[in-house]
Amino acid sequence: MYPEDVHISTCFPPLSKNQDLHDSKLYFYDLNAKLFLTLNGKNHISLSGYAGHDRFKNNYSGLAFGNQLASFRWNHEFNPKLYSKLSLSFSQYDYELNFSSSEVKIYTWRYHMNDVGFKYGLSLNPSKNLEILTGIQSTWLILHPGTISTSDNSSKPYTLTRKKSSESAIYIQFNQKINEKLSVKYGGRLSFFNNIGADSVYIFKNNSEVTAIQTYPDGRFFNWQTGIEPRLGISYTVTPNSSVKASFARTRQNYQMATNSTSGTPLDLWFSASKNVKPQISDQWSLGYNICLIGRHIELSAESFYKNMQNTIDFRDHPILFLNRKLEGELRFGKSYSYGTELFAKFEFQKINGWLSYSYSRSKRKIQGIANDHWFTSPFERPHAVNIVFNFEQNEKNRFGLNWVYLSGQPATFPVGRMDLGGLVLPVYSGRNTERFPNYHRLDVSFTRILKSKANFYHEISFSIYNIYNRHNTWTIRFEADESGSQTMLAKNTYLFSVVPSVTYNFKF
Amino acid sequence: MKSAITLLILSAITYLPACVEQIELPLESSDTRMLVVEGQFTSDTTIQTIRLSLTSDFYETNTDPVENATVSVTDGTNTYLFIEDPKIRGLYKTPAETYGMPGKKYKLMISGTDTNGDGETESYTAEGQMPAMSGIDSINVSIENLFSNDMLRVSYYGQEDPAPNDAYLFRLRINTWLVTNNLNECTISEDQTYNGQYMIDEPAIYFIQKDRYVRNGVELITLESCHIPYDYYLFLNDVRWESFGSDPFSGNPANIRTNITGTHKALGFFAAYSITRKSKIFKP
Asked: pLDDT (tens digit, 9 = 90+) per residue, A410-439?
């Protein structure tokens, strides 16, 4: 039996000088538990679980989101050339928004998604130069698009119809060593997808006009989608310390996320493939070079990619997202592409280790009915991204860590003009995602003290400071009229965190 | 109820725990000005008005009116001329006792303007059909505590039109005072969740602070129910999202839709709608 690992954190907004933050409550936790069992030399079982939850709360409202995962794995050796891996998994992601209109009534808006997965794979080694991986996998997913309820049950909960679907695949991959310098990986997946009743599917004409409603009874499989996903990877060893890699992969993405605002909230909406939404098909090519230096203490790599995607989804202008039973009618469809290069350096010496990376990437999309059908910047594009992680082990007890993150600002749509209408000042825009939020960056530091390190019990305490130089990274930017009534518009930056100290306690047994 | 919850959530979002600071954010400016139309033609027997203005840079403090335009509305048989108010430039008015008829289609025509200053005059048009009068039998007025404030809650009883895609705009008067005097203070609703039902105590107005408006012991509360075209509802929905700013349910910022077409791109909306009123004496 191997250890369990538990990680609990807390932070201290009440220490903030900012009154808004002072009155707010913020807490989060992550719990990890893993159990390894060796039944005999040929059978190994593991159980793992994870639960994480974040909550922000003040007197009037709250926002919470979390993940729960559980998995079971069984590795079995038939003989030295044949292994099997069985895994069962369950996961849930949810978020909720609470708001109280009075002292007695609390409204809760909740969105959650669950999936149950099964995977059985075989690993066959007919020769020392060939490995064959094959198997089947299946995932059942249930999306609960939204429920709103009241704490005093004064109103009947309003619930959108849940969406059930399953995704299955058979796969095979060959890992073959051609000679001492050349290795190839090739294979593919044959994937199957279907929706599952009970469901009422709105059929749209011109994207948003409902022409029919198709009803499916509970348990009925419908809207079968099948596709082949080939992949190929080549690795060539140039010298004993350097290699070149190239790959191609086609993937079918039956679940897509559509961002519903420019604020970086976790309140995103997921869509499964359906009668209205086709699976996103992406083809990715990549080319990379890797070299190790100074006795492998330093590893350098560079990799470029190009990705082409079909059936990309995005929301139309001014979608009606809240409690909308015809939500798919708010989607628009098109294509997209992205490309980029990442430079990566990793170093590991006796007392110091860490890594740094820089990536340059671009991502564009063309969606029918958005931005006059022209190409526009994807909401996920961050052209420049830098990560620096540096760790220093002072001695066996004390460790210091440093983490610096830099990202180009998130694409945003800002006004270029105004109009006065209906007693309001309203923005006029030039196009979607033509501007950016201010760049994002922060520095986190930590100090970890190992309290006890024995074979049967290990625990440590860690003190860390998130965003130590108090960067007010933008969560969203709003434009509001000056409170003096002069009709002057002001830009207001909303940020979630300033400096956040926290304490983490880890233990393993 | 759905629209009540939606507005409640929008208000709650502004209370989400976060810090807000004013920042200097340079914005691009647009060299060309566009016409903005704020036009209604209603079933009320009154002076009908249409306001014409121009767009301006976002950080400017005002917008210019469009003067000396020729403005009219026609139903194909009758044509109503709108004359510019000599005291309020850009505001065009009909004579008193002008009214529209539910079921009729009205066309707005604007000409004689030069919004982009190129020396060429432009013309613009828009159309809208006036829906039937909405069926409201009576209203109810009560006080509800929201966010630690006493708010007026005005609800109504009445048969909703069984045809789909009906939409409503609710305004509130206290005595003769129109307290919902901008589009954000009004309530808009569409009948997706209650099409054809008899509405019982359906909330129409919920965010009016009692202490700010209810000053006498006895008040005459009047609910104005405007039965509006569905495309005007979508326009008002855009207006609401854009004026509230970015929030988790608003989608990406985008230009507000318009039904104004013409020589150049224009903004705003022309809508024909009917108005029904119900009143009640309220003693807090």
From this structure: 999 999 999 999 888 899 998 889 999 999
* Residue A414 at interface with chain B, using a CB cutoff of 8 Å: yes
User: How many residues are listed for chain B in this entry?
Assistant: 284
Contact A486 B61 (CB under 8 A): yes
* Residue A267 DSSP code: -
Query: Counting beta carbons within 10 angstroms of the beta carbon of residue A452, is it exposed (0 to 12), middle (13 to 18) or buried (19 or more)?
Result: exposed
Tokens of A80: 């030295």
Non-local (6+) Cβ contacts of A91 within 8 A are A67, A68, A69, A70, A114, A115, A117
As a dihedral over the C-alpha atoms of residue A145, residue A149, residue A151, residue A152, rounded to 10 degrees, the angle is -160
pTM above 0.90, yes or no: no
Question: How is residue B224 written in tokens?
Answer: 């104005």
Query: In chain A, positions 262-281, which contact chain B (CB-CB < 8 Å)?
Result: 262-263, 265, 267
* Separation between Cα atoms, residue A497 and residue A16, nearest integer Å: 10
**In the predicted structure, residue A22 carries a pLDDT above the cut 70:** no
ipTM attached to this prediction: 0.88
- Provide DSSP, A133-201: EEEEEEEEEEEEEEEEEETT--SPPEEPPPEEEEEEEEEEEEEEE-SSSEEEEEEEEEEEEEEESSEEE
3-state secondary structure of A131: strand
Let me know: does A462 contact A503? Beta carbons within 8 Å.
Answer: yes
What residues of B are in contact with residue A495 (Cβ under 8 Å)?
18-19, 21
Task: Look at the block and give the residue holding tokens 């990566």.
Answer: A344
> How far, in Å, CA of A448 to CA of A463, rounded?
6
Q: Of residues B157 and A318, which shows the higher confidence score?
A: B157
Contact yes or no for B227/B274 (Cβ under 8 A) = yes
Question: Mean of the per-residue pLDDT values for chain A?
Answer: 88
* Integer angstrom CA distances of residue B168 from A381, B204, B237: 40, 10, 11
For domain B132-255+274-282, say whether CATH 3.40.50 is its number.
no
Per residue in A443-476, pLDDT (tens digit) is 999 999 999 888 788 889 999 999 999 999 998 8
Bridge-based pairing of strands B177-178 and B167-174 is antiparallel
Q: Which two structure tokens, joined as six digits, stand for A124? A: 């066959």
**Short-list A99, A87, A194, CA closest to A141:** A194
Give CATH for domain B35-129. Answer: 2.60.40
Which pLDDT score, from 0 to 100, does residue A482 have?
Answer: 83
Give the minimum alpha-carbon distance from A359 to chain B in angstroms, rounded to a whole number: 26
The one-character DSSP state at A262 is S
Tell me which of B20, B29, B226 to substitute to probe the interface with A (most A C-beta atoms closer than 10 Å): B20
